Amino acid sequence: MALNADDEDFEWEPPSEAEMKVIQARRERQDKISKLMGDYLLKGYKMLGECCELCGTILLQDKQKKNYCVACQELDSDVDKDNPALNAQAALSQVRERQLATQPVPESNGASSSEPPLSITGQPRPEHCEGAASGLRGPPPTVQPTPLSIPTPASNFLPPSNPPVQTTPPVGSSGSSLHHHPALSSAEEAVLHKLRWATQELQHAASVEASIQLCNLIRGCAESLRSLKELQLS
Amino acid sequence: MQMQQQLECVSLQVCVSVLGPLESVVRRCLGPEGGSVLFTRDTGETLISRHGQRVLSTLHLEHPMARMVLDCVCAHAKSTGDGTKSFILLLSALLRAIQDSAHMRRKASWSNPALQNLANRLMALSRNELDDIIIHQVTPYASSYCSHHSDKLEHSILDYLISGYISGRTGAGQAEILKHILCEFYYKSKRDQNTTETISFIHSHFNVLHTRVAGLPVGCSEVIEGLVVTRDWSVWTELRGPIKALVLYESFGSSLGDNITVCFQQDWLSRTESITKQKLAYLLELQVNVVLSSVKQPECVLQWARMNHVALLECVDSDQLDFLCNINFPETLSHPQHIVMLKYCKRLQLGGLRCAQLGIYSNAHTLVLCAPAPGLLDQTVCVSRGVFLMLQHITRTLESNQFKSSSVDQSQCTVSSQDLWRAVMQAGGVLPVGGVFEFLLHHFLLTRHTSDPESCRLLAEALLCVPRALYAHNHRRFLNIQTCFFNDLKKWDRTSVGDPVKFEFGFSEGLCLESVSGKQQLVVSVLECLHRLLCVGAVLYTRSLLRPQIYSEEDEEEEEEVHTNSI
């Protein structure tokens, strides 16, 4: 008696390693969410019949009738690691993608100016964007982390999707005499601008991760200003 | 296309996300090592419980699927009194297994038709193959296990059943006491009667046959002969010997007759007085010594009772009065009045409460349950009630099985007590607690030659979640038990029928038993609930409440969420 109407159901192959990891990660996340929700249910929260718009988790409502999504507000979101504004690795991978897409002319003054530095912090976050990080580790790390490839916003402080501002002098310029080069001053200006933006963002930063990233950005800005000053003086 | 696939697999994902929190709530209360949940209200009331149904009903659940699952759990609990937490665990494990198997098939998700097909296959499994496995494989194992331990089990199978039920549901200290009390209650109520009838009697009248006393330690619980009414006598005289008692459901002054025209209040008052006096005089003629009333009687009746040495008990629960009337075959004077015979009347002190004790001409005893806090008392009463429900389920299943199998001698319909429990043992109706049933079923499902290996595999893997949760605090112990058990099982498989089997698998903490039929019912109920969940086609949200249960189900091809503005 053929109870199986769907012939595709007969194939059963063991999953690959990567798929197992994905399944495992998904299951762990689901378990964490379930445990948190269970705790909240026992605290008197109500399980609603609606789902969160952002992540699809079932919403809870507390006694003050406020809706609460466990996944969005307590767990690291699945998609946050891909958001360049919050994660250096994501930003770096985005930069690399764009560079590869535009195919820049290789310059004469060394690899440091056109390649994005390994990271702002100097310590890549291991659990996120492994692929991007391994891609970036290919070229040798620079001795002095030349400044940012954090994409700058257009004038309006929003998470960017624009290509980053190259703070080092543009490729193809003469590169010999950098004294009082207009590029240097514009670079300095851009860095200061960025510094100001980062400070403002830091004041409004809500999560710890974002604050850490912004502090690192500010440090990077300061270092790049110092190296620009050295360049000007030398 | 991606969107379409996302919509299609929402149903399974939603089920998993709804069951997940319920499982995490219930898991912490499972088994003898589990804890209790403390609920508090703003008014300061507390409720301590580890009873699955009680915990789940107290949560605020508005999600329609959660409510549906809760309904299924309550319906299951009503029939067996057992396994509400295991229900949730098993259901959740099955849903996760189904979801994982989709990932492993290199498909993005289960499509709706495939899900429904799977649900139907699992239902078919529960209806056809499960019965077969239980009857031909699980029960022989159970009966040979019981015969192997028959020296221990012979006379105390009931004790082990009760302790198996209680140990997972109350704290260790209370479990011992409660077990003794319940066994005593059972044996005293039974005396020479039929086992099945006794159990059925106790279960159906449990509300009347138990009394709650808060504020005393659990050890003060006792079994008292006769019926205990939690009211003090309004007028009291010590009475002995066969006594006639009048059972009243309404006040004396109320029924005046049909044709009365009231002219003046004075006139009316004197009429009522004279009629009441007539009735009371009539009672004295009948030699009624006790009046049991479900309402408050007027002062003149109290005075009359004091003067004529008649004991009067007011505001008795009408259920108890009905019970008295039903077991006593009363002579009926007129509709709101009956006369019953009592053996004696006594006054009783239970904790801070003064009660009345009525001796009745039957074996009925009252179970007095004490606990320090109301929440704990509630739990104790729930557990006691559940014990008899569980016992009744066993006896009913045994009877229906005996009725079905033609090999049993039909003239032996009513079995005496020894024979009933022996019959239960021989029929393989009981197994040790601790996951034995799950291990057995897991093994037999996997080794079975069946037309639907996928469903069997899904169910077999999910079944292990229950013992895993039971031994969650000590995973190594779980693995040890599992290994030891499967070794035993292999040996048993290899021996032929009639050879003595050496069961090495045993429990160090003493034997506790659970019923196979209850476990089977659990698996069937879970698969039915799963079928209901997986066949939900659409969830329609309405702005206003249609009726207390908001959800509606329709079998449609696509899943959609629709917000409507009117009913």
UniProtKB/TrEMBL annotation, chain A:
Segments forming a coiled coil: none
InterPro entries per the UniProt record, alphabetical: SSSCA1 (IPR009563), UPF0148_domain (IPR051888)
Highest taxon of source: Eukaryota
Biased amino acid composition, Low complexity: 168-185
Regions of compositional bias (Pro residues) in chain numbering: 138-150
Region Disordered, residue ranges: 94-185
Biased composition (Polar residues): 100-122
Database matches in PANTHER family: PROTEIN ZNRD2, SJOEGREN SYNDROME/SCLERODERMA AUTOANTIGEN 1
Protein name (Swiss-Prot/TrEMBL): Protein ZNRD2
Species whose genome carries this gene: Danio rerio (Zebrafish)
Lineage summary: Eukaryota, Metazoa, Chordata, Craniata, Vertebrata
Protein's gene: znrd2
TrEMBL record, chain B:
UniProt keyword Protein biosynthesis, yes or no: no
One Pfam entry name: Cpn60_TCP1
UniProt cross-references to SUPFAM superfamilies, sorted A to Z: GroEL equatorial domain-like (SSF48592)
Alphabetized Gene3D superfamilies for the sequence: GroEL, GroEL-like equatorial domain, TCP-1-like chaperonin intermediate domain
Keyword tags: ATP-binding, Chaperone, Nucleotide-binding
GO molecular function: ATP binding; ATP-dependent protein folding chaperone
GO biological process, alphabetically ordered: chaperone-mediated protein complex assembly; convergent extension; convergent extension involved in gastrulation; gastrulation
Domain of life: Eukaryota
PANTHER family from the UniProt entry: BARDET-BIEDL SYNDROME 10 PROTEIN (PTHR14667:SF2)
Family as reported in the entry's similarity comment: Belongs to the TCP-1 chaperonin family.
Protein name according to UniProt: Bardet-Biedl syndrome 10
